[in-house]
Write a structure and sequence with these properties.
heterodimer; A: alpha/beta; Glutaredoxin; two-stranded antiparallel sheet; 6 helices; 9 strands; B: mainly beta; Immunoglobulin-like; 10-stranded mixed sheet; two-stranded antiparallel ribbon; 1 helix; globular
Amino acid sequence: MRLTTLQKFLWAAVAVALVAVGAVFLLVDRSPEPIAQAAFRPTFSLPDAGGRLRTPADFEGKHLLVFFGFTNCPDICPTTLAEVAQVMDDLGDQAGKVQPLFISIDPERDREMGLAEYTEAFHPSILGLAGDAAQTRAAADSFRIYYEREANLEALDVYAMSHSPGLYLISPEGDWLGQFTYGTPASEIVADLQARL
Amino acid sequence: MKRIFATLALIAAAGPALACETVTVGPLEVSQAWSRASIGTARPGVVYLTIRNSGTADDALMSITTPAADMPMLHQTVMTDGVASMPHAMEVPVPAEGQVALEPGGYHAMLMELTQVLEEGETFPVTLTFRDAGKVTIPVTIQNIGASEPTCPSPDE
């Protein structure tokens, strides 16, 4: 019986997600502004796990490799963070010129569960940032990425977020350089970075 | 690559556990079952595996159970216009004379409410229930938290 109720909830979640995705599609359609405009500078102001407020200025001189996700996500978030870890290993001596950032889109829960131990389990260089709701929304808007809680499933504590899972590359000057879509092999990302470093 | 070798070394060191087992039920063969190590039990775990169907009729994976989690569920990561969502999968189709993989970025079994920490190098059993072929249990190899593919070779290799 428990499963039946759960299934109803989950189908409701699917419906909400579909509507949400449809809404985003329409919004995107109405503002066909190219994302690769020169001098597009996404920004953020978010605390790290130690509570220190971080902005792009903290990482001057480094390329930023930014991923939005949440630690309660068993499939694509670990897969992407593992790929980032592989990239950092493969960069070798040049790894110091790249700062990977994991920006939580479920910040309250991620702080409770331990953001730093999670990101460090993948690679010690990955820095996790988790702000409040307004800071998080501002960062996501600035990167023009989408995330949404799919339905009010808090009580069930299930998979309740959908989001844009790409890796975003920012130049040392803060300019948007591009996006590696989900599933881009680590070797391609490494080659792209090596050409820039 | 280093990571893969490290994982292989750990599995080898763990001795003749039931890692990399291939099991069959009716015309179905299940192999390469793997998971990722967990930090504690608060976050959900995952199970990936490959199912081959040598039969002439379609089948479907309907549900999974495991002592490692109180609420395991089948999900599918779906990408729509660059947005990923993870709806519950009511069933995972296993086509006749074909195969389906639970793999990163696609179908996956999500282990909610872990009952134990998933330790790298260990295994835990998962029982799969198919619509027609029935139930079969396979040991799942726990790989590194940063693993992205199974270390167990495909049964053909």
